[in-house]
Structures are given as structure tokens and as C-alpha cells.
Amino acid sequence: MHLLALLPLLVSVSDLILTSAPSISIFFPATSATKVCTLQNSFQPDFVAEGDFVIGGIFPLHYNQEMPDLNSTYLPPPVNCRFDPRAFRWAQTLRLAVDEINQSSELLPNNTLGYKIFDSCAYPLTGQRAALAMLNGLKERDAPVCSGASPLLAVIGESGSAQSIVVSRILRPFRIPMISYFSSCACFTDRRKFPTFFRVIPNDDYQVKAIAQLLIHFNWTWVGLVRGDHEYGRFAVQGLLQELQGTQVCVAYQEMIPLLYNRKRALEIISNYFVMRSSLAKVVVVFSAEGEMTPFLRDYMNQNITGIQWVASEAWVTASVFTGSEYYPFLGGTIGFGIRKGHIQKLWEYLQTVNPQQYPDNVLVHELWEALYGCSSSQSFGSRLPSCSGQELLLEQHSAYMNTSSPRVAYNVYKAVYAVAHSLHNLLLCQKDRGPFLNNSCAQSNNIHPWQLQHYLQEVTFDIDGEEVNFDLKGDSIPYYDVINWQRGTGGNIEFVNVGLFDGTKSAGEELVIQDSAIMYAGHQSKVPVSICSTSCFPGYRKAVRRGEPLCCFDCVPCDTGKINSVDCTFCPEDFWSNENRTACISKKVEFLAYDTLGIILTLIAVVGACLTMAVFAVFFYHRNTAIVRVNNSELSFFILFALTLCFLCCLVFIGEPTVWSCMLRHTAFSITFSLCISCILGKTLVVLAAFTATRPGDNIMKWLGPKQQRAIIFGSTAVQVIICVAWLIDAPPYPSRNTEYERSKIILECSVGSNLAFWCVLGYIGLQACLCFVLAFLARKLPGNFNEAKFITFSMLIFCAVWLAFIPAYISSPGNYADAVESFAILASGFGLLFCLFAPKCYIILLKPEKNTKQHLMGKEKK
């Protein structure tokens, strides 16, 4: 793209940046007439190599910046940063990859790659300067006129997401693709904002998902969150909080490490907010870069705080700067997710070729020697450190720079360079009239535009060291992490041990695999540390959330009856109930009127009643020809005794577990037998009343109440009850039911009446018969004679009505087996009332006073 077309944008950007960083390099027109680009300030690359095609590289070769005072009143000094050997290794990996590609006969034959490597100092403004410097060119003569295709085809960088956002926005107008090796912020998936961004590191959406599963796996429900002051930390924390929604994990606190590190602020965080010595949150999840964590952890160690279980993001979980033995007491046991490691065959040998003798004028190489050996290889740089020869051997203990056994970020740099090379190779292989651009055209090999390379980069697929490398539509790569655990090595230093993996391509619930037995936790413990706000409730108690506090902070209160568990006191199933301690569900006690103490008593009373009735029947049958039996209508007496026997025996149907047949038989048998009994008494009452109310000798009223008529009265009165019962059984018959409402800890087996209307009709009809008998007998209570049957019928009906009137409220208020017992007692009480009132006086005369068993005595006509 022609740079002149974007001059207004660059000028506005330069106006903004030059106020804060005057040393930025940028071209802008000297005069509108000449359109000559003039270099205002230089920002030199740290490593340069010419080639047919040039790529840029941006690395945080320094960190822990201390920004100068930017008051715009004087020219500020340059940014002061500290050297990072680890990032320097990443930059050397880019150089190695370019050298391998240039020496390859299969990849980009007859073409060479060049590079320009800049330092971002792990700061967005410095990264911005680097991006603009790459676009401007190295020297003023390199670009006298802003015309033609961009000399820069792609950029490998940046490490931090905050820096990558700035660089990507600068490269976007020029449509220059950018491949990041360490920027995992989920924000880059927005193709509208970052259309030229690619990365060989997984999206943070997968990392926060992995961390959430890790916290749940170890039951760490009370954790702290710490992040850096940049988009990477902000988006990662937002994603983790969203991922933790609906889980039992709560966040105790959230804190931010200042981007421009401030020791006073850091101590405030450690002392006031973490409260690490006393807080129950013993697990701290950190989304931060290595440069920010280094001074922060140094201050943390100075506070002599131990016992914290750190959960590290991929940005610092494999940082070699923390492998020293002095870190283990404070950081040992750290768990985190590291990006996939690989193997770079020639990296060890290549790193050893970098020394002050080979690069005598390179400031970075001298800084490397100062960082590794604590000496200065050249006194010309004004260092106060002791001098060294510059021929010192690079050894394995220089792990910050020489750790090549399991490269991760460096491996990503390696893949990014090869992705550009393979894409460029595919572009150059384009056949005429078969290209992907307008009119099936191909890119011109001597004038390749970055956007043309981006097209091939989007579709590139290649294998490197057995791993397939490609990009999805959002520029992301395959989501894969190693679970890293910081363990003590043989020399007391920290070693990064692989204890599991997270494969984002697997189905939900199968992504995370952890070898629990291989993990060493904080404090050199093999036992999983506890990080909870409130201890788990004992069985039988539930969690009561404290007002104004997270869900993980709660009090334990006893569960209600019928509930168990230590979470929310769940109800037991319908047929179960909680035990006394509310710890388990046990089967509910099933109750019904069984043959227990109450059932046996009722059975004995019923049998005794039936036997007494049969005994009276036998007495009456044996003395059937005596006066008292004949006068009282022996046939009706036998009917009454037969009906009473059935009444006593029907009580037995109420005892035992209810069944379909027993439920239908209970009320129908009781109602029909009692109706038969009352019908017989009604017939006897009518006969007595008719016999003693005839006023004239010619009134033969008894002819209307003969034996046939008496039977008809009994049959007719009983038939009405039978019809009611038949209709009841057809329409809504009684059925066995399980009552769990009255007492929820028990299951009461009872017979539901089916139809309440039919049930009360049955009882009402018996009551109507009894009332009619009572009224008629009451009218005949003063008839002459020593043995007035009407008096006994009156007393029997009075007792009968009293019993059943008392039965109604008792029955309604009694549940289950007690209702059956109440009904049985009512049947027995009314049966004994009828038996004793009607037949006890007669048996007394028959058995004990036979001299009074004469017609004259009964009629009151015996001689005095």
C-alpha cells in the first residue's frame, strides 16, 4: 500500500505519540510540494539481516520499565528498562529460523528472507515506536519517496497482548499481517478490529476454561485474582469470572499490578488486600507477564509470606527467571498451564555462537553477559561491573537464556517464522491465471503486497516436528496446554514438571487430564491445600449464605425434618424421611390399623360381642315357646340378633392392611348390616305401637302388620341402603390410599371413601332410621305392662344416636388408622348398646326369673 495515502493518519499518530515519547521515528512530508519523507528521529533495530523479503520481529528484550517524567517542558531521557535473557533467546530463535529457511533448498528456493528485530521493552508505547520504525525504514535514504509496496511483508510479535493491540492497530491500515507468539488475549478474535492478526498460541478463552476446571478439580472454592494492568489481564479475568458462574468457586479479591511498577502500591496490595498471613484464600490465580511479576514477587518474598498456592497463566508459568533456589520456598508447588513445548534441533548450538567477540558492537549481547555473569565485557559502555573476557562458556545453569530442553515461547516464534515462509512459498508457486486474486491473477514476485501474503497465511497448513500448524478463520491456532508444576530439582532449583494436559479439541468434560499423584503443592506438600471461605457443613446441616458476602461464605444451620444433605437440605423422596440426625433418608414408617395392641383389643371385643349375640340367640331359640319370647315377636328378635352378629363381625374388616376388596367391603358391610338391624327394630317398634294403640275391639290394625308386612318393611328399608351402596360402588368405590399429608414422616395406609356424598348418605340413612325408631318408641314409652318393649327400644336408640353423633367429629379429626379405630369403636359401642338394651332384660327374666316369664305378668294382669 502507498504510504502517502495514510500520511494524515501517521501525522495524527505522531502528534499523539511524540508528546509522550519524542524519540519515535516516523516520516512525514517536509513540504507539500516536494512530498519528500524526512526522518525526524531514529529508532534503530537490534538485529538486521537483508533479504529478498523482509519480516519484522518485536520482542520484550527489556522489562520493568521506569518511565521518565513526561511534562512536555524538556526533552525526556530514554526509557530505562532491564534486560531479559529469556526474550533475547526468543529473538535468536527468529534469527535461527530465518537462517535455516535461507539454507533450505525446498522452502523458498532462490529467495532469501531478511529481518529487522526491535525491542518493545514490554511496554505499549515502546512497541508503538518499534512498529513505526519498521515501517519507516532504517535510514533516510532507504525511502526518499513514499511509494510502491511495503518493504515489510509480515511482523513476528508481540509478546504481551497490550503491546500487540497497539502494534496491530498501526499495521492494520497497511494490511501487514502480524503473527504473535505470546499474545493470548481473547479480544483478538474480533476480526473487525484485528483483521490482520494471527497467533500460534491458544486463545485465552481456552486458558480460563482450563483454569476454571483446575479450580473445580481441586475443590478450591475461595481464590484470589491478580492481573496485570493491560488488556491481557483484564480480558482473562473477565473470562474466568464468566467461566466460574454457576460453579461453587468464589473470588475473594481482585487486584491489579501497576503497569509502571510501583513498589508502594505493590506493598499495599500484599499487606492490605491479600492479607496472605490470615486470609482463607490460599490459592491465588495470576494473569500477568514475567516482567511485572518479577519485582512483585521480589517484594512478596521480602514479606516472608509462605503457604500460598499460586496458579500461573501461560505468560509466566515457564519463566526461567524464577527457577533459582531462592524462589522455591515461596513459589514451589505453583501450578499453571504452559503452551505446547516443541523441539528446535540447532537452537543450543546457535545460542552459543552469540557472544561479545562475535558481536562486539551489539549492546544487547554485552547486556546478556552482564545478566549472566555479572561482569562487563567492554568498559566502553560505562559499566561499573568488573570486566570479563567475553569468551566465557554458556552453560546449562544459565537457564534464563540457555534453557532449550523444552522450548515453548521460542518454539512459537519458530513456528511463526515458518508459517510466514510456507505462506510466501505457496504465494510464489502460484500459476498464471490460476491465482486467488482479481481475474485469477497471482501476486508479482518482485512487488508482493502484505495483504496478498495474508491471503496465503490464512490458508497455510504445514507440519513441523510432527505438529500440524494452521490458523482458523479468527487467526487462532489449536488450543493445547501442558499442566506445569513447579517442583524442587536436584540442586534445589525449580524444575517445570509436566503433570497433565488440556486439549481444547476434546468434548466437554474430557479436556483436562491431571496426574494428581505427581503434583507437589505449596510448602512442599503432597496433600492438596485447602482454600475455602467456610468449612463444609456436617451432614444434616445446610448452608445459609451470609448477607453481603459471596456464596462460598456461609453459616451452617440444621436441616428441616424430611430434608438431608449439607448443601441445600434436599427433600427426601416421597416414600422416605430423614433420620434423627438429618444425615440420610430412611423408609417412612407405614401405619395402618394392624393386629397390634389396638387391633387385637378391637378384635377381641368384636369376637366377644359376636359370641354374646350368638349366646342370646341360643337362649331365645331354646326358650322360643316361653311368653317373653313369643310376646316380643320371636322372628324379629332372631333377625335383630342375626344382624347384630354381622355388625360385630364387620369390625374385623377394618383391621389389617387396606386392599381394594377390604375397602369396598368395610363401609358397605357395616352400613347394610346396621340398616338391617335398625329396620328390624323399626318393624318391632311399629308392631308394639300398633298392638297397644288399638282403641276399639273392631280396630284390627294388626292385620296390616302381620309377618309378611313385617318382612316387607325390613326388606324395603334395607333395600334402600343396598341401592345406595351399589350406586356408590359403581360410581366411585372406596379404594386404598397412602396418606402422607397428616404426618410427613409416616405413610398412613387408609381407605379413601371415594365419594364423600355416598359415604354421608349411607350414614345419614342409618341415622334417619334410628331417629324414626326413637320417635316411635318414645311415643309408646308409657304403654301399660310390666315389660314395655318400647322403653327398651327408646333407650337403645338413644344410646345408638349418642354414639354416632359423637363418632362424626371424632372420625373427621382422626387420621388413618385412628379413624378406622374410631369407626370400629362406634360400631362395637352401638352394637353392645342395642344388645344390652334390647335383650339383657329378657335374658334376665328367662334365666333368672322364670316365674315372671308368663303372659299375665308381662301384661300386668297377674293376681295380687
UniProtKB/TrEMBL annotation:
Principal subcellular localization: membrane
GO CC annotations, alphabetized: plasma membrane
TM spans (from-to): 598-622, 634-656, 668-692, 712-730, 757-780, 792-812, 824-847
Membrane topology: Multi-pass membrane protein
Record-annotated G-protein coupled receptors family 3 profile domain positions: 598-862
UniProt keyword terms in alphabetical order: Cell membrane, G-protein coupled receptor, Glycoprotein, Membrane, Receptor, Signal, Transducer, Transmembrane, Transmembrane helix
Signal peptide as annotated in the record: 1-21
GO molecular function annotations of the record: G protein-coupled receptor activity
Pfam families associated with the record: 7tm_3 (PF00003), ANF_receptor (PF01094), NCD3G (PF07562)
Record localization: Cell membrane
CDD domains on file: 7tmC_V2R_pheromone, PBP1_CaSR
UniProt-listed InterPro entries: ANF_lig-bd_rcpt, GPCR_3, GPCR_3_9-Cys_dom, GPCR_3_9-Cys_sf, GPCR_3_C, GPCR_3_Ca_sens_rcpt-rel, GPCR_3_CS, GPCR_3_vmron_rcpt_2
Family: Belongs to the G-protein coupled receptor 3 family.
Name of the protein in its database record: G-protein coupled receptors family 3 profile domain-containing protein
Lineage, opening ranks: Eukaryota, Metazoa, Chordata, Craniata, Vertebrata
